[in-house]
Design goal:
Largest sheet: 4 strands, parallel
Number of domains: 2
InterPro entries: Phosphatase-like_N, Ptyr_pPase, Ptyr_pPase_sf
Keywords: Arsenical resistance
CATH superfamily of the largest domain: Response regulator
Protein name: Arsenate reductase ArsC
Strand content: 5-15%
Structural class: alpha/beta
Pfam family, one: LMWPc
Low-confidence stretches: 1-10
CATH architecture of the largest domain: 3-Layer(aba) Sandwich
Organism: Nocardia speluncae
Distance between the termini: 51 Å
Number of strands: 4
Mean pLDDT: 89
């Protein structure tokens, strides 16, 4: 291999050369973004542990380094907030459900669309699925919101600690409880297995609840 040596943490027997290079490139980008906030070892540890979160259930392995980079970035942003290294005062809301494939993804899409840069939204699942519910994607596209770039993912401790509000949707006893967080439980039907027509009322209810939450947080909406 002619490229410069990869860090020891990136030398994994289960990865192809292309994946090694992609992870090295991702690590370099994250190091630039978080320069002065976190060291190389922390960044690489989060990147590789994020990779592990998706490796066992990915259907297209070529996307794994990109997913790992995106998730690691979110986790590092959360850690920076938790450790008081970066805090803008922008409220952060975490939407949780079981598979992070339907309800929580629709809530994330609506919240982000309505709040813009005035608030931050994340999502996660207790048992992340393999893909976002295609009917949920279609239902959101009907109202001009594209969630095709999202992906089912777990929640992690730093993300839970960084959230100001945690909204749960059907994850039951698996939903985490952290002291000092505001919790809301939204009792909504699971859109799994439903067609777009049946999902529209769920989408409408989610939008109503998201708008109410934004108003309570005093966040201006689009």
């Amino acid at each position: 291999m002619t490229e410069s040596p990869l860090p020891a943490t990136a030398l994994r027997a289960d990865l192809s050369i292309d994946q090694h290079v992609a992870l090295k490139t991702a690590a370099t980008r994250l190091q630039r973004e978080f320069d002065g906030t976190f060291g190389v070892e922390t960044i690489e540890r989060f990147l590789h542990s994020s990779y592990e979160q998706f490796a066992g259930r990915a259907t297209i392995v070529n996307f794994l380094p990109l997913l790992a980079e995106r998730f690691a970035r979110q986790r590092l942003q959360a850690l920076a907030k938790v450790e008081g290294l970066h805090h803008t005062g922008t409220p952060t809301v975490l939407f949780l459900c079981t598979h992070n494939a339907g309800r929580s993804q629709m809530a994330l899409g609506l919240f982000t669309h309505l709040a813009g840069e005035h608030a931050i939204a994340w999502s996660g699942g207790s048992e992340p699925g393999d893909e976002i519910n295609p009917a949920a994607v279609e239902a959101m596209a009907e109202i001009g919101i594209d969630i095709t770039g999202e992906y089912p993912k777990p929640w992690t401790e730093e993300i839970l600690k960084a959230a100001d509000v945690i909204v749960t949707m059907g994850c039951g006893d698996a939903c985490p409880v952290y002291p000092g967080r505001r919790y809301e439980d939204w009792d909504l039907p699971d859109p799994a297995g439903l067609d777009v027509a049946a999902i529209r009322p769920i989408r409408a209810e989610i939008e109503t609840r998201v708008r109410a939450l934004l108003a309570e947080l005093d966040v201006p909406t689009a």
